[in-house]
Amino acid sequence: MLVKLLKYDLKYMIKNMIVFYLLSFFFAITTRILFHIEQSVIVTILRNISIGFLISMAANILINTMMRSWIRFRDSLYKDESYLTHTLPVTKNDLYLSKFILTFLFFFLGFIVILLCLFLAFYSKENWMLISKFVKNITIGLNMSTIFFVTMFILVLFLEFFNAIQCGFYGIILGHRKNNGKIGYSVFYGFLFYLITQMMVLGLVFIYGLFDPSIMALFKTATVSIDANAFKTLSILASMFYLGIIFIMFELCKKALNKGVNVE
What angle do CA 69, 175, 72 make, to 5 degrees? Predict the structure, then answer.
């Protein structure tokens, strides 16, 4: 039954997200073409417009993945569609797991589409050399591999966004227990728990810093320079803490959902 739930959820998300994926690739291609056309004032204007639309579509992929995940969660569990959903022979755990997997798949897919479109639009030996030189200047100063730096940067960013989505789920569950102002309460609780999880990550890093002077130095000094080992430790810690918090929020959401659902 979980597979069937995912099938319907996937159809919903594909229907709503495919236009942003296609437009992103379209503007990536037009940007690529306009970079290779003999430059003129008109071509330059069109190229900048195309780049602007490409960046806009990339932002829309992230924003709409978050928004559509929340809307799908609310509609299937609390709106008219929920009358059918709650008659299915599935547990509340399966219902939440379906939304969790759906969000993970499309958020991961969104990141891949954005990276592919940026590569398609801007890749050239010259641009690659400039980016590589820029990143290497950072990584050489930090005495770490470029692959590690880029991987950890993307991973932490992905986990932070995903944590925000799950906090939104928890906010929706709590907000829809209220008799009035359910949307307002959902936004309030979601934002509140997002702030709490961010403070938890910062607090856990601080606690670790009590045993690691290089990490504690980040809280005590105002300089922007950072020790290589401190950066490695910080990025790994942040990833581990986010994974732990995502797991805790996953369990909290299931527990809260199992307490009952007030269908509108």
Answer: 20
Separation between Cα atoms, residue 7 and residue 3, nearest integer Å? 6
Contact 33, 128 (CB under 8 A): no
Residues 162, 166, 167, 171, Cα dihedral to 10° = 150
Select from 183, 198, 157, 155 the least CA-distant residue to 67.
183
71 is written with which tokens?
């809307």
User: Could you list the pLDDT tens digit for every one of the 264 residues in the chain?
Assistant: 667 777 778 888 888 899 999 999 999 999 888 887 777 788 888 888 888 898 999 999 989 999 988 988 888 888 777 766 767 777 888 888 888 898 889 888 988 999 899 888 887 777 666 666 666 666 666 666 677 777 888 888 889 888 999 999 999 999 888 888 888 999 999 999 999 999 998 888 888 888 878 777 777 766 555 566 777 788 888 889 999 999 999 999 998 888 877 666
CB-CB contact of 143 with 48 (8 Å): no
What are the structure tokens assigned to 259, written together? Answer: 């307490």
Question: Would the pTM of this model clear 0.85, i.e. be above it?
Answer: no
Pairwise CA distance, residues 206 & 197, whole Å = 14
How many of the other CB atoms lie within 10 Å of CB of 139? Answer: 18
Instruction: Tell me which DSSP letter residue 178 carries.
Output: S
- Tokens 């959401």, residue located: 253
**CA pair distance 117, 58, nearest whole angstrom:** 9
